[in-house]
Amino acid sequence: MHPNKHIRKELKEAVAAGWTFEKSSPKAHVYGIIRCGFGGRDGCRMSIYGTPRSPENHARRIRQMVRSCKH
């Protein structure tokens, strides 16, 4: 998965909670995208960056997104 341990931990927890992780192509700007189990146009989603400025803050945002999902 992700090279950073904080982000990798949150991605594993998101997948365990029913979210899907879709890795982008090597030429893409983002590392991948997570989507909630609701799917479709109205489902929750978040871009995962490969080299965020603050990996700990990015991991915290992932955790908040997964916990605040209404679906």
In short:
The protein is of the alpha+beta class. The chain is about 35% helix and about 15% strand. The chain has a three-stranded antiparallel sheet with strand order 1-2-3, covered by helices on one side.
Give an account of the 3D structure.
- There is one protein chain.
- The chain has 71 residues and is α+β, with helices and mostly antiparallel strands.
- The protein has one domain.
- 35% of the residues lie in helices and 17% in strands.
- The chain has 2 helices and 3 strands, in the order H-E-E-E-H.
- It has helices spanning 5-16, 55-67; strands spanning 20-23, 32-35, 45-48.
- It has a 3-stranded antiparallel β-sheet with strand order 1-2-3, covered by helices on one side.
- A hairpin with an 8-residue loop joins strand 1 and strand 2.
- Helix 1 (5-16) runs parallel beside helix 2.
- The longest helix is centred in the C-terminal third of the chain and has 13 residues, at 55-67.
- The termini are far apart.
Structure characteristics:
2 helices; single chain; alpha+beta
- Main beta sheet: 3 strands, antiparallel
Beta-strand fraction estimate: 15-25%
Kindly provide the radius of gyration, computed on alpha-carbon positions and rounded to a whole number of angstroms: 11 Å
Q: Into which percent range does the helicity of residues fall?
A: 25-40%
Q: What is the averaged pLDDT score? A: 93
Number of domains: 1
From N to C, what is the helix and strand string? HEEEH
Give the overall shape: globular
Q: Tell me the quaternary state.
A: single chain
